[in-house]
Amino acid sequence: MPRLPRAKALILAAARDIVERDGAGALTFEELSRVSGVTRGGITYHFPTKDALLQGLLEHDMQQWKESEAACTPSNLPCPKQCELIGFIRSHTSEDESRRRFVAGMLSAAVHQPDLLDGCREEIRQRYLGSDWNDTELRAHVLRLAAVGLFWDEIFQFQSMPPEVRRRFTGLLEQLAREWVPAAGDPEPDTEQDKKRK
């Protein structure tokens, strides 16, 4: 990721701190100027409106998600698809209090301005563009959705599982990723329908 200009990086870091602490509703240019040390004119040079600032925050967060996923992706498995899937699972199930507070702080803005999430929607659309949705891809998607569900369980602090069970659950997701996504040249795992036919 190219390095951001210093003032823009300061603005985004301060804006994220405000959102984490008090939610997106508390993000005003005055408060941002106070926290970041950047003048209001400096802020509006990079982000002319609050919507542009929120969009910039989300874009920066998406880039951090990509970096987190890359850092969580193992490189020692025989199948790149297994590696990618496990990286996805690990990045979505890691317990990150800062991320939890940021996403929780952005929820009201996203609910009131659904178009703020257009960049996220496009990112997800691009990820799955060209998928043929065979049985292996469907199984992988089941695991992705389970990881995303655990992420939202954490965001809302439902704590549906005790910590030890949560660790076992994420371990099971990774185990299933290895079993359900075959390495190149390996046969597809049998579906329940295949087993019934045999």
From TrEMBL:
Residues 28-47 bind DNA. The keyword Nucleus does not apply. It comes from Pseudomarimonas salicorniae. It comes from the Bacteria. The keyword Acetylation does not apply. Residues 5-65 form the HTH tetR-type domain. This is TetR/AcrR family transcriptional regulator. PANTHER family: HTH-TYPE TRANSCRIPTIONAL REGULATOR BETI (PTHR30055:SF234), HTH-TYPE TRANSCRIPTIONAL REGULATOR RUTR (PTHR30055). Pfam families: TetR_C_28 (PF17937), TetR_N (PF00440). Keywords: DNA-binding, Transcription, Transcription regulation.
